[in-house]
Specification:
Elements (H helix, E strand, L loop, with lengths): L15 E3 L10 E2 L10 E3 L20 E4 L9 E5 L9 E9 L6 E7 L6 E6 L7 E7 L8 E8 L7 E9 L19 E2 L6 E3 L24 E6 L6 E5 L3 E3 L3 E11 L4 E8 L2 E9 L7 E7 L2 E11 L6 E12 L10 E3 L5 E3 L32 E3 L8 E6 L12 E6 L9 E3 L11 E10 L5 E7 L6 E6 L7 E6 L8 E7 L6 E11 L14 E3 L5 E3 L37 E2 L4 E4 L19 E5 L3 E4 L2 E2 L2 E13 L4 E9 L4 E9 L9 E9 L3 E9 L5 E9 L5 E2 L19 E2 L9 E2 L33 E2 L37 E7 L11 E8 L5 E8 L6 E7 L8 E6 L7 E10 L10 E9 L12 E3 L8 E2 L8 E4 L4 E6 L5 E6 L6 E13 L2 E9 L3 E8 L6 E9 L3 E9 L5 E11 L20 E2 L8 E4 L26 E4 L12 E2 L24
Protein name: MAM and LDL-receptor class A domain-containing protein 2
Pfam family, one: MAM
Keywords: Disulfide bond, Receptor
């Protein structure tokens, strides 16, 4: 690791290729001054017997440029000059040349308008007659300004035939010669015999069971390698020749070999130099069904070729494969150097078992110095990566001087300035991590803050010396720590994390990271018992049957992704075609790292080198016609970044273009998405149909990417293209606004901020149709599954919930070790909605299959800083009853989403077909313009009611649960606190009664306010001084729309304001004779009447003050049903025989001609 070299991530520019097939020669011209006696000729192999085939086309008829010396004298010169090149700071020219004799040489010259004098770059020849690849580096110093390349031939004899083809100019540095991972092409390695080496992926390799099932570069079935196959009667041989290159210093050649078969022949690795040809390595026979590394040391040589010569065996199945050829300066380290890790107890484990997310050493030290780190004790194996060309003044440093109150961030990694030559973009790199499982997630905390431009932090992973793959970019400045939760997915080879800081250069700046964690990354464990509808993997793990061949490695060894020939229209886009899908030209099939927006990695191989479909504007994708099918399942992966104005319509359409199934997803969150989301749908239809995806992008700052399409064998595909529904690429008539559904010729347009704002602004209300309120009968209502592929939400019919092929996995894929929790999480996210009004509440109905899932509803703010608003756990039980969950969200000034998250902890197999079902999700009272109401309010706080916490105060009332009752309370601290509980707007009223109970303690007060648009009227004020609950009845009115507010104040830690039993009803309060005996005011006008009386009535509560046989006294009052309510009682302790008591009202007049009804409640107790 001391010589670790790190390359910047490559965003490859478009290369310029000239294959000389066209008459204009791509702008190349003949040199015509007096020095040049003849010209290069454009021709083909059919014109000349000296050449067998064109390099571009591989046949006799392809065109190339050549020089034929037979018609000219020795010393004659021909020059072919490229067009002018300007503004390219560094360049690499690759080309293929052919020489028929040792006297045939090709010179490459550079002409610069800055210096005027041409310079000779190199002279090329070859000791054999075949096309040879070559690269020429053009350094920044040599290509300043405008320049041209010249390919020059000077005749030395009449035998010096020279040809040139496929000139490629790349405006970037040349890669290391010979190096090749065979993912995109063969990197200037050339076949030289009729029997050929083939560059392809494992699914195309013949002799299944003999060929490598995965390439070495990506470790997946979708990567590519070079292979030779022979099972013919004749014994075949093939040779692969490298480009010409120079070895300036002693170097190490490394390549990975796979040789397996009935009787495998011989592979010879040869070096071809001026001194002759030398066999560097010879391998014979089967090496087993695995990749083996071969390392060979090369000495200095000015002109060098390598060849791979393979010889088959007569009548036997032979497969020889090669991958990841790498030439590096320095001696070879050897395959077995540092091959074991020494545990503290003296035992040894292979290095491949360190940092593999499960401990093999007894004390866990093999997982101690890995990527997961809180930086409190050390850097856990992370280290600085320095390069010689960096010349600014920033570096990463472990900071330990934080305040303990800032825990867990009192120790972290931070970027600081330093004098001297350090790092321009300082990086730290983790120790080598082992491959991850599909469910792996990276989390970390980071802080970015600056007084100038926003700083940034980039997270990459690097493997095998290839270009780094960008995983995440954070660039939102905030004084608070931000949380990253990023699904990593399956990384199939060992790798390093690299974290890079980009400074803004401001004087005051913070770039820090902390709490790096990797969860659910270990490989799956074998299944003890195979659950129903599960299949067994080669490694004895298991997976749900519907996950087979869906481009997700659910096994950990890709065995669930093997034998997929029966799955039609399966497409990873790695081979450069659409696999039968009809894709509009607006889509780009591109290398992931070349995209303008994330994700900068594809889904198939999970690297920047992988390929995907991406569009930045509206486009369509259609399948061929599918015959009538039952349970035809369709899978794909998608990612959307950069815009809040994207719609994806997935329609299943019959031959008459009638839509028989529709799934629409609208995206309203303006952010970058760095991971893929899985989508699946099942269709059963008794007539032919086809799948049509329509992507609508109303903002040029958006990108929609797709990858890994697949259908199940139940989908029977018929060749032929359906008649597409009407589609136009003309601009949206609403431009950057939302277009409502309407039958009018003139469109109805509304601003996008009026979509999902809880108000129906479109004539048909379709602006609110996909905004989270749904019964799931027609569609998902805008909800999206953000789960990993092993445990997820699906929309199904109730009758299908018990079908084996419509289940959510009930088994975890993690290993249950002490390093990880055996869990899986399924997340269902609402669309972005808001802002919200005061009473906003989210509700749903849910049903749990067993006690195991942990179900939580959470509301989150959107944007780069995602803050939790409120969260509500829901209790699951196995009684299979529908229950309602309600979560109060309240007034929100910004947009937000709601997530429904089910977390499953697995210890044993559970024979369940589904875990959690939800239905009838709804946002209620969420509009910021809710109509005023006259509905009565009766609030005991035992369940949600229509009094709401205000967001304009400094504190909240909290719900208190006592032994007998629930109430709300504001409790003080050392600071002044104000809490407001208020109603929604209410209609004007000429008479309403407000009743409530209150309790005030310590330094606190309560104020009741009648709030109107133009004025606030305080209708009640009380301060502390009461030792018991008090009851208030207020007769109020309002000529305008109003709200009632309960304003609690505390100014010390002993202050407390509590409220309970609030009623707001239309009409007057009860007349004076109505009495609950809880009020000490004049509202209760019942008095003791002592004339002729010998016993007094008294106020009491519970069984206090009952001195005679208290066990018979009432424990609760009748009004409130609690021990704290009051009542009138007689204490008849002792012998009270014959004694009399009177409770007398004031004089009253009846209110109706027929009189009034008098009612009271009584309780008698005695002991005989």
């Amino acid at each position: 690791m001391n010589e670790f070299a790190m390359n910047d991530p490559v965003h490859r520019p478009i290369r310029q290729l000239c294959d000389f097939e066209a008459a204009d020669l791509c702008g190349f011209t003949q040199r015509e001054d007096d020095t040049y006696a003849f010209d290069w000729t454009q021709g083909s192999a059919s014109d000349h017997q000296g050449l067998l085939n064109d390099h571009t086309t591989g046949d006799y008829y392809g065109q190339y440029m050549y020089v034929d010396p037979k018609q000219y004298t020795v010393g004659a010169v021909a020059g072919l000059v490229s067009p002018d090149v300007d503004g390219v700071p560094e360049a690499c020219v690759a080309f293929n040349y052919y020489t028929s004799h040792k006297d045939g040489t090709l010179e490459v010259w550079l002409h610069s308008k800055e210096t005027h004098d041409p310079s000779l770059l190199n002279i090329y020849s070859a000791p054999f007659q075949t096309w040879i690849g070559a690269r020429q580096v053009l350094l920044p110093v040599s290509v300043a300004g405008v320049w041209q390349l010249e390919f020059r031939v000077t005749l030395k004899s009449s035998n010096g035939f020279v040809a040139l083809d496929d000139v490629i100019l790349s405006p970037d540095a040349c890669p290391t010669p010979v190096n090749c991972d065979f993912e995109a092409n063969s990197c200037l390695w050339e076949n030289t015999k009729p029997a050929k080496w083939t560059n392809d992926d494992p699914s195309q390799a013949p002799a299944y069971g003999y060929a490598p099932p995965y390439d070495h570069t990506t470790g997946t079935p979708y990567g590519h390698y070079l292979y030779f196959y022979d099972n013919s009667v004749d014994e075949l041989s093939a040779t692969m020749l490298s480009e010409v290159f120079a070895v300036d210093k002693s170097s190490c050649l490394s390549l990975w070999i796979h040789m397996y078969g009935d009787k495998v022949g011989t592979l010879q690795i040869k070096s071809i130099e001026a001194e002759g040809t030398f066999v560097l390595k010879k391998l014979t026979g089967s090496l087993g069904l695995e990749w083996h590394q071969v390392q060979i040391e090369l000495g200095e040589s000015p002109q060098h070729w390598l060849s791979l010569d393979v010889q088959g065996v007569h009548g036997q199945t032979n497969v020889v494969a090669v991958d990841d050829i790498d030439l590096s300066v320095g001696l070879c380290a050897g395959n077995n150097s540092f091959g074991y890790f020494l545990c503290d107890d003296g035992s040894k484990i292979p290095m491949s078992q360190t940092c593999d997310y499960q401990s093999q050493c007894e004390s866990g030290e093999d997982e101690r110095w890995c990527a997961g780190c809180d930086f409190s004790d050390d850097m856990c194996g992370w280290r600085m990566v320095e390069t010689g060309q960096d010349s600014s003044h920033y570096w990463w440093r472990r900071y330990t001087g934080g305040d303990p109150e800032d825990s867990p961030h009192d120790a972290c990694m931070t970027v600081e300035s330093k004098d001297g030559v350090v790092l321009n973009k300082p990086r730290i790199i983790s120790r080598l991590q082992q491959p991850t499982f599909e469910t792996c997630t990276l989390s970390m905390d980071y802080k970015l803050q600056s007084t100038g431009a926003d700083p940034a932090i980039n997270v990459y992973y690097e493997h095998g010396g290839s270009d780094m793959t960008l995983l995440f970019t954070g660039q939102s400045s905030s004084p608070d720590w931000q949380k990253l939760m990023l699904p990593l997915g399956r990384i199939s080879t060992a790798f390093n994390f690299v974290i890079e800081a980009i400074s803004s250069g401001a004087d005051e700046e913070t770039i820090s990271l902390d709490q790096v964690k990797l969860t659910k990354c270990a490989s799956p464990v074998p299944c003890i018992d195979l659950p129903p509808s599960y299949l067994l993997c080669d490694n004895k793990a298991c997976y749900p049957a519907e996950a087979k061949c869906d481009f997700t490695d659910d096994c950990g060894d890709y065995s669930d992704e093997a034998l997929c020939d029966d799955y039609p229209l399966r497409c990873s886009f790695e081979d450069g075609d659409y696999c039968g899908w009809d894709v509009s030209d607006i889509f780009q099939l591109t290398e992931a790292r070349s995209s303008k927006m994330p994700p900068y990695r594809d889904h198939t191989v999970n690297t920047g080198d992988g390929h995907m479909l991406i569009t930045y504007s509206s486009a369509t994708i259609m399948s061929p016609i599918i015959q009538a099918s039952t349970n035809c399942q369709f899978h794909l992966y998608y990612a959307i970044s950069g815009s809040s104005k994207v719609t994806i319509d997935l329609n299943v359409v019959d031959s008459a273009t009638n839509i028989i199934f529709k799934q629409t997803s609208k995206h309203g969150e303006d952010k970058l998405v760095f991971h893929w989301t899985h989508f699946s749908a099942s269709v059963s239809y008794d007539k032919p149909f086809f799948i049509h995806m329509w992507v609508t992008v109303d903002d040029r700052g958006a990108a929609v990417a797709f990858d890994d399409f697949s259908l199940t064998p139940e989908c029977i595909v018929t060749p032929g293209t359906p008649t597409p529904p009407p589609f136009s690429t003309t601009p949206n008539p609403c431009h950057d606004q939302f277009m409502c559904n309407t039958e009018n010729e003139m469109p109805t347009c509304i601003p996008y901020d009026q979509v999902c704002d809880f108000e129906k602004n479109c004539p048909e209300g379709d602006d609110e149709s996909l905004c989270g309120t749904t019964d799931f009968e027609a569609d998902m209502g805008g909800w999206q599954d953000l789960s990993d592929a092993t445990y997820s939400w699906s929309r199904i019919k109730a009758s299908d919930a018990y079908y084996p092929n419509c289940t959510a996995p009930n088994a975890d894929h993690t290993n249950g070790s002490t390093q990880e929790s055996p869990e899986s999480t399924a997340i269902l996210s609402s669309p972005v909605v808001g802002p919200a009004g005061l009473g906003c509440t989210f509700s749903l109905w849910y049903n749990c299959k067993d006690d195991d899932p942990l179900l939580v509803i959470t509301a989150w703010t959107t944007g780069d800083l995602k803050d939790k608003i409120v969260s509500l756990p829901l209790r699951c039980s196995s009684n299979q009853e529908w229950r309602q969950g309600q979560m109060f969200i309240g007034e929100q000034d910004q947009l937000f989403t709601v997530e429904v998250k089910s977390t499953k902890y697995f210890t044993t197999w559970i024979p369940t077909q589904f875990d959690v079902t939800i239905d009838d999700t709804a946002f209620t009272l969420c509009s910021t313009r809710e109509d005023a109401t006259k509905e009565d309010i009766k609030c005991t706080f035992s369940k949600p009611c229509h009094f709401y916490q205000s967001h304009r105060d400094t504190a909240d009332y909290v719900l208190v649960t006592s032994k007998y009752d629930k109430y709300v309370s504001l409790r003080g601290d050392e600071n002044e606190r104000i809490a407001v509980l208020e109603t929604l707007p209410r209609q004007a009223s000429f008479g309403f009664c407000l009743s409530f109970r209150y309790l005030i303690k310590g330094q606190a007060s309560l104020e009741v306010v009648n709030s109107q648009a133009t004025m606030n009227e305080t209708v009640f004020v009380r301060k502390s001084g009461y030792l018991d609950w008090q009851t208030v009845h207020l007769n109020l009115y309002s000529s305008k729309t109003y709200q009632i507010e309960f304003v609690g104040h505390t100014s010390a830690s002993n202050g407390e304001v509590s409220l309970d039993d609030i009623e707001l009803v239309e009409g007057l309060c009860p007349p004076p004779l109505t009495c609950t005996f809880d009020d000490d005011s004049d509202n209760c006008l019942w008095k003791n009447y002592f004339t002729g009386a010998s016993l007094p009535w008294s106020i009491g509560r519970g069984n206090e003050n009952i001195t005679s046989e208290p066990e018979y006294a009432s424990l609760v009052d009748h009004s409130w049903g609690t021990p704290f309510g009051h009542y009138q009682y007689l204490n008849i302790a002792g012998d009270q025989s014959g004694k009399v008591a009177f409770l007398k009202s004031t004089e009253i007049a009846t209110t109706t001609p027929d009189g009034d009804c008098f009612q009271f409640w009584f309780y008698l107790y005695s002991k005989v």
